[in-house]
Amino acid sequence: MIHSLFLINNAGDLFLEKHWKSVISRSVCDYFFEAREKAVEPDNVPPVIRTPHHYLINIYREKIFFVSVIQTEVPPLFVIEFLHRVAETFQDYFGECSETTIKDNVVIVYELLEEMLDNGFPLATESNILKELIRPPTILRSMVNTITGSSNVGETLPTGQLSNIPWRRAGVKYTNNEAYFDVVEEIDAILDKSGTTVFAEIQGVIDACVKLSGMPDLTLSFMNPRLLDDVSFHPCVRYKRWESERVISFIPPDGNFQLMSYHISAQNLVAIPIYVKQNISFFETGSSGRLDITVGPKQTMGKTVECLVVTVHMPKVVLSANLSATQGTYNYDPVTKILLWDIGKLNPQKLPNLKGSLSLQSGAPKPEENPSLNIDLKIQQLAISGLKVNRLDMYGEKYKPFKGVKYVTKAGKFQVRT
Amino acid sequence: MSASSAFSDEKGGSASEPEYGHDPASGGIFSSDYKRHDDLKEMLDSNKDSLKLEAMKRIVAMIARGKNTSDLFPAVVKNVACKNIEVKKLVYVYLVRYAEEQQDLALLSISTFQRGLKDPNQLIRASALRVLSSIRVTIIVPIMMLAIKEAASDMSPYVRKTAAHAIPKLHSLDPEQKDQLIEVIEKLLADKTTLVAGSVVMAFEEVCPDRIDLIHKNYRKLCNLLIDVEEWGQVVIINMLTRYARTQFLNPNVNESLLEDSSEKAFYASDDEEDEDKKTEAAALAKRKPYVMDPDHRLLLRNTKPLLQSRNAAVVMAVAQLYFHLAPKAEVGIIAKALVRLMRSHSEVQYVVLQNVATMTIKRRGMFEPYLKSFYIRSTDPTQIKILKLEVLTNLANETNISTILREFQTYIKSMDKDFVAASIQAIGRCATNIGEVRDTCLNGLVQLLSNRDELVVAESVVVIKKLLQMQPEQHSDIIKHMAKLIDNIQVPMARASILWLIGEYCEHVPKIAPDVLRKMAKTFTNEEDIVKLQIINLAAKLYLTNSKQTKLLTQYVLNLAKYDQNYDIRDRARFIRQLIVPTDKSGALSKYAKKLFLALKPAPVLESPFKDRDHFQLGSLSHLLNAKAGGYQELPDWPESAPDPSVRNVEIPDWSKCTSRKDRKEKKVDKPFYSDSEGESGPTESADSESDSGSGSESASASDESGSGSESEESGEETESEDEEEDEEKEKKRKKHLDKTKAKKPAEESAESEQSSGTEDRKRGRKAVKNQKSASESESESESSESEDESEEESEEESESDTDIRKKKTPVSKQPPKQSKKESKKEKQEMSLLDLDDFEPAPTSAPVTPVNFLSSSLVSDLEGLSLTDTILAPTTIAPSGLIKLYELLHRITGEGLAVEYCFSRQPFSPDPNMVAVQIQFTNNTNSETKNLHIKEPRLQSGMRIREFAEIEVLAAGESVTVVMGIDFCDSTQAANFQLCTHTRKFFASIQPPVGELMTPVFLTENDFKKEQGKLMGMNEISEKLTLGEKCVNEHVIVERVTATANLSRVPCGSDKECRFAGKTVSSGCLVLVTVATKEGGRAQLTVNCEKMVIGTMLVKDIMQALSQ
What we know:
The complex is a heterodimer.
Chain A: E1 2-9, E2 14-19, H1 29-39, E3 48-50, E4 55-61, E5 64-70, H2 76-94, H3 99-104, H4 106-116, E6 117-118, E7 121-122, H5 127-133, H6 139-148, E8 178-191, E9 197-211, E10 217-222, E11 230-233, H7 239-245, E12 247-250, E13 255-264, E14 274-282, E15 288-297, E16 305-313, E17 318-325, E18 329-333, E19 338-344, E20 353-360, E21 373-380, E22 389-395, E23 402-416
Parallel strand pairs in A: 8-23
Antiparallel strand pairs in A: 1-2, 1-5, 3-4, 4-5, 6-7, 8-9, 9-13, 10-12, 10-22, 11-13, 14-15, 15-20, 16-19, 16-21, 17-20, 18-19, 21-23
Chain B: H1 2-11, H2 36-45, H3 49-64, H4 73-77, H5 85-98, H6 103-116, H7 122-134, H8 141-152, H9 157-173, H10 178-189, H11 194-207, H12 219-225, H13 231-248, H14 259-269, H15 274-284, H16 295-304, H17 313-326, H18 329-332, H19 334-342, H20 347-363, H21 383-396, H22 402-413, H23 418-434, H24 439-449, H25 455-469, H26 477-486, H27 493-505, H28 513-524, H29 530-546, H30 548-563, H31 568-581, H32 594-598, H33 622-626, H34 656-675, H35 683-696, H36 698-716, H37 720-743, H38 753-768, H39 770-778, H40 780-798, H41 802-815, H42 821-835, H43 842-849, H44 852-857, H45 859-873, E1 887-890, E2 898-908, E3 916-924, E4 930-939, E5 945-947, E6 952-955, E7 960-968, E8 976-981, E9 986-991, E10 999-1001, H46 1006-1015, E11 1021-1027, H47 1035-1045, E12 1049-1051, E13 1058-1065, E14 1071-1078, E15 1083-1090, H48 1093-1108
Antiparallel strand pairs in B: 1-2, 2-3, 3-7, 4-6, 4-8, 5-7, 8-9, 10-13, 11-15, 12-13, 13-14, 14-15
Helix pairs in contact in B: 1-2, 2-3, 3-5, 6-7, 7-8, 7-9, 8-9, 8-10, 9-10, 9-11, 10-11, 11-13, 12-16, 13-17, 17-19, 20-21, 21-23, 22-23, 23-24, 23-25, 24-25, 25-27, 26-27, 27-29, 28-29, 28-30, 29-30, 29-31, 30-31, 34-35, 35-36, 35-39, 35-45, 36-40, 36-47, 37-40, 38-39, 38-40, 38-42, 38-43, ...
C-alpha cells in the first residue's frame, strides 16, 4: 500500500520523509516537481502522477503537498482519504497543520506516522487512540518535559485499540459535563445574471464538542428529520437506529468531532438569504470600465446577515479600481486581481453599494468575460434549511450534563454570475 | 546556537539539559560539525534516560530530513532494551529504518523482540511482532515465520491482527514462504473478530489474491462483520468481495434489454424461498432463461448498502463500485446520491470521484441525470475539476436536457480560464454530434464564436466546426466560406490546418474561393508551422485534381517550396504527391487512382468520451484512474456462464440471514408461555421447550429446567443452600417421576418431603394449565423443574405467604371462561386439592399421565391454544408473587392510611405484549372505605404508555386488593409518573423499573444463542471482568442471581464453566443475551450482547453487582 510519504512545501522544499517499507530515494519526487511546474496553480497538480516505477498520489493542504509513493494497485481514494486524515491529525495535535508546526514537532510527527501505518496499511487513525499512544504537546507539558526529561509518549499502554468502541477512551472524567452541538449549514449556490437561482443546495454538518464523563450513550433527535435526505455519519453512529427511527444514537468520542454531515439538494427547500444587483461593464474605448454592486436581503427569516464579503476575480487587464462604498471597505489587489469588499453587517434599511470605475491596461482589448462574484456571509442562530434539534437524551450515566445547540448558516460556494 | 549547544552537549552535563529542548528539527544544527555523531553516541551511552531520549529525538529528526545516520547504528541498537518507552519507540523507528543496511548488527536486537513475543501483555506482544516483522533482514525469516504462526493463534485479537499485518511483510522479504503463509491466512480468515478481518483480507490480497477458494467458507461471515470492521479494512474487504462475487454469482442483468424485467427480478430475488420463485418466474418468463439471485449475492448487496453513509470517501467509493459491478440495474441508482455527496469533499477526492462518475455515466446515464446540476461548474473550481465536470455534463446530455446544458456551456465559454473554454467548445461539439436535434444550433453558436476576440476560442471552434461539418458538408458552404476568410486572422496552427483541410475537402462547394486561399497560402508557405504546411500541400493536391486549370502553377510552386523544406516529412510528402498527381511519362499505375485516393469520402469522426470502455477496469482502482494496468492489479473477472456450486459457502452453522424468519416464528410460539414460567402457571412453555430440547439432548434439557429453578428461587430470595441438594436430586428425579407414573397414587411418605411439595407445585401449575403439565410430565424437564421449585415452595410456605396468596389464586377460577370445559373441570379439581393443602398430591400427578399420548401428537397446536387462554387470564390473574421483590409506591403514612405496593410480576401483559406488567396492591389501613381508586394524569417520557387498571370502586377498611397495570417503558429506565386518586385525595406516584424488568425471557437453543450472539458483536457487546462474591460458589447460585436481577431464561450450554441467559426487551423485542463465564479463583467474565447498548450497560452493572455480592 503506501510506501513512503514526502512533505513538500509550496516553494518545493522537501522537508520531511517517512518510509514504511524499504527506503525510496527522494529523487522520485522529481516527477512531482515536474508536474507541479506544469500545473502553474497548486490546485491543478494531478492527484495521481505516474512514474516509471511508482505512482505518486498527492494532496495539497495548508500550503503543503503530501506526496505518497505507491508501488502497486490501491484504490486512489484510499490513499487520498488517508493523507487527509494525516493532515487532520496534525491539525488536531498542533492546532494547525503548517510547515513550521510540523518542523517544530518533528519527533511527534514521526511517532504519529509510525503508529498510523504499519507496512503501509492504516493501523490506528482514530485520534482518540493516537492520543492515548502519543500525547499531544501543550505548552505546559513541553516545559515540564524539558525540565524533567519525561516524554510525550503515553506511560500506559493504550487499550483503545482493543475496545469495541475504538473512538472513545475509557475512564474519561470531567468536572463539568457538557455537550455542545453546532449545526452549521453552508449554502452552495449559483445565481445567474438576472438573479435567478441556477443551482442551490445546502451542505450541513453537525459538529460536536462532547465532554462527558464515563461512557454516556446519547440520542439526538430532530423535529424534522425528514428534511435530511442524504447523510453520512461518524462511525460511532448506529445506522440501524437512524434507518428505523430517524434518531441519531451514539456513544460519542471524547472532545471535538464531526457527528454527521448532510446534504439537502431539493432546490425549493433552499432559501437564498440575499440578492445581488450588479453591473460590471468594460468600455470599448478608453481602457476603462464601470462597476456597480448592491447587496440586499432576501429570505433571512428575520435574522441579520453578518460578515458579508464580496470577492471579485477581475480579468487580467484590470489595473486598478477607483470605487466608493457606502458601507464597509474595499480593497483591490492588482497582483492577484482580486477585488475584496468587506461589508460586515447587512442593514436592510440602507443597502450597501459599491460603485466606481475600473481602469484597464491601455491598449489591451476589452476583456471578453465578466468576472463572477463570490459571496461570503454568516447568519447566526439560523439553520437555513429549517432543521431543528428536538432533544438530546443521555443514557448510561447518572449525572446531568449541560447541553447546548447552536445554529449557524454560512455561504459555501456561493457564486453570482455576471 | 548550534555550535555552542553541541559543545555543551558533548560535556553531557546535567546543567545543560534544558538546552536539549531546543528544537532539533530547525535546520542544520550539526550539519557542519564533523564530530556531530560523537556527541550523540556519548549521549546514547550515558545512563540517563533524558540524555538518551534527547539523542534519539535528534537522530529521528535527522532521519525525517533524510540525513544519513547509519553510522550510529551500534550505539542506538544497544538501547533497544531501554526501559523508557519513548526511547524504546524511537529506537524501533531507527532500527526499522536502518536494519536493512546493517543486517549483522540488527541481529543483536532480535532476542529482545523474541522475549517481547512471550510477554503476558498483549500490547507488548503485538508491538514486538510488529517491529520484528518490520526488520527486513533475510536471516530472521524462520524466526518471523515462527512468530507469525504463534501470533496467529494468540488469545488476543489484537495480536492476531498484528500477525495478519506481518504476513505481507514476510512475503515481500521472502516469497518462498508463500505456502506456509497461505496456511496462516487461511487460519486467520476464519477468525471471527472484526479487528482481524480487515487486516487478514489485506494480507490475502497481497499474498494470494487468486486463492478465491479460501474465501468460500468465510464469505458470509465477512459480509456480516463488514459493518463493524474499521473503515480501511472495509475498503479492502469490499474490493475483494466484488471480485469474488464476479466469479461466483450470475450476472443479474443478463436480460439487460428487458428493463422492467430486471426490477421484477430484483424483487423476487430478495425473497428467501427461491424454489418457489423459480417456478413462478419460469412460468411467467417461459421463453427467457430465468434469473434468480443467489441469496449470498443479495446478502452482500444488503450488507454493504449502509456503508454508503460512511464518512470515509474511500468506503463510499468502494461500495459504489461494488454496486456498479454487481447490482441489478434497477438498484444501482442508490449510489448516485452518495457519490454526488463526495463532490463536496477535497478537490483530490472530487477528482477521483468525477473520473469514476464519468465512466459510470457512459454506461448508466439515467443514474446521474437527477443530479445534473450538481455538476455545474464554478469559476473557482480548479481547471482539472472543471474539465472532468464538463465531461460528465456532456455524457449526461440528452434530448430533454440539452437546452439547459447548452445554456450552461454558453456561460462557460466566457470564462477566464482558457483551457477550460477550449474544453467547453469541444464539449459543445460532442453534444452536437451525439444529439442530432441541436446540431444546427450548436454549429451556429460555434460560428458566432469565430468572431471571438480570443484566438484560442476561435481556433478551438474551428477545429470543432470542422468535425461537425464533415458530417453534413453540403448544407454549410457559407460556413466554409466564412472560415476561409478567417484564415487571414487566425494564427493558431491547428485551426489554420483545419480550415485548409476543410477547403480542400469541400473545394467543390467553394470553387471560387479555394484557389484564392491556396494563392494566399503559397505566399506565406515558408513561415507556416509544419502541420499547416502539410495541409497546404494537401489542399494544393486536391485542387490540382479538381481544378487543374486554375491551380496547376500554384501547385507546382507549393511543391517546389516543399521540396526544399527543412522538415523531411514535408519533403517526403511533396515528393510523394508530385509523383501521384503530376502526370509524367513514367508515372506509375497509382496516378490513375489519384482522384480516388485524395477525394475519397472520409468517414466523419466520432467524438468519443475518453472514458469510454474504461469500465473494464474495476472502478475506483488506480488502474481505472490511469486507464492502464497498474502493478498488482487484479482483473475483474467476467460473470460466469453458470453459477458455481453455491454450497461451498455453507458453513456448519447455517446462514443467519436465512434462518431468521423461521426462528422468529418459533420464538413467537415459545415466547409467550415462557415468560409465565416463573409464576409456575403456564406449562406450555415447559413442554414447548422440552419438546425442542429433546433434540438437543439431555444436557440441554437439564439446563433449561435450571433456568426454571433460577427464576423460582429468585422469588424466594435467599435459598442458596437448597440448591446443593438439587444436584443429587437430578438423577433421583427421573426415577421418582417414574414412580409417580406407575404408582401414581401412593408416594412413599418419608422419601417425599420434597415430593410432596413438588406435588403442590404441580397442582398449582395444573390449576392453570393442566395440559401443559401432562405433556410436560412426560419429559423429565418438567418434573425436574417442579422438583427444584419445591425447595423454595417449602420455604415460602413456611414464611408468611398465606391468605392473600390464596385469594389471588381464587380469582382466576371465578373468572375462567366456561369454554374450557374439560380442562376447567380438571382445574377445579386441582383447585380444590390445593385448598386442601398438601395432602392430596396424588391427584395432580396422576392427572398428567393419562392424556400424554394423544396430546403429544398435536402438541404444538394445542400449546398455542393454551397460551391463548393463558393470556386471557393474565390481566386479572395474579401469581403467587409474594416472593417477588416488592416496592413501595405509597407509604401508609403519606397515603393517609392507604398503602400501595407494587412489584413486577414478570407475567406477560396480555392486552399489550409490549408492556411490562406491574402488579399493584392496595391496602386500606383506615377505618373507613376508600372509593374510586384510579390513576390520573400520567406524565410520561415520550413514547411511554400506560394502560391503567380498571377503577377500584370500593376498598373496604382493612381490606387489600391487587390489580395489574401495564406500562410500556420504551426500554428505558425512566420513571413513569402519575397520580393515584381516591375519592378524596390525590397522591403523586412514580414507578421506576430496574433494567432487568424491562425484558422477558426468550427460549433459545445453544446454537441459536451462538448465532444471535454472533450478530450482536462489536458495539453491541459489552464485556466486563468481575470477581464473584463469596456466596457465588457454584453455577446454581449464579443462575439464581442473574435471573433474580433480570427476567431472563437460562439457555442450555455444553460447558459447565459458562452460564447463558436470553431474553428480549419488552417494548422493542431486542434480544438480550447474557453470558457468565467462570474462571479459576472466583473470577468471571460477564458478557452482555444487546442491540440497545444502554440496556446492555445497565444490565452489566446490575448483574455485576448481584454477582459480586
